[in-house]
Design goal:
The protein has about 140 residues and is of the alpha/beta class. The protein is about 45% helix and about 15% strand. A four-stranded parallel beta sheet has the order 2-3-1-4, with helices on both faces. It is globular and about 40 Å long.
Length: about 140
């Protein structure tokens, strides 16, 4: 399996780019916001353990895709300089490589001005994404 892991700051266009890539390739989109949104309907996103459990679910899905030899998957994730953010991508890489797959990390960058413009776009509001300049 080939796994494209797009990461970068909130509102930098990761999902927009991922959707375009699925349109021009045979790769499938793993929209990680859907997992977060479903889980946050049950558990408060600010509760201890929320992100660990959400990431466990996402990792299990990704590992099964690798095991089933899904042709290609595109995944996006907000990434900050917090040292804890290194753990999840490493787990994904290990799980995919365990089944002979390959991970391609793609860092998406965007100017602060463009991020501030994009953050309040309507397309962000139906997810539990940052959608206010004050939240950033």
């Amino acid at each position: 399996m080939k796994f494209v892991f797009i990461y970068g700051p909130p509102a930098s266009g990761k999902l927009t780019v991922a959707k375009e890539l699925t349109n021009i390739s045979s790769y499938k989109l793993f929209d990680n916001h859907k997992i977060i949104d479903i889980f946050s309907e049950l558990i408060d996103i600010n509760k201890s353990g929320f992100w660990d459990y959400a990431n466990t679910i996402k990792l299990k899905i990704i590992e099964e895709c690798a095991k089933q030899k899904v042709n290609g998957v595109i995944f996006t994730m907000v990434y900050t300089k917090n040292p804890k953010n290194h753990i999840f991508p490493r787990k994904i890489k290990k799980a995919i490589e365990k089944y002979g797959g390959k991970v391609f990390f793609v860092k998406l960058e965007c100017s602060q001005e463009e991020i501030m413009k994009r953050v309040s776009e309507e397309s962000r509001k139906h997810f539990k994404k940052f959608h206010k300049k004050e939240e950033l």
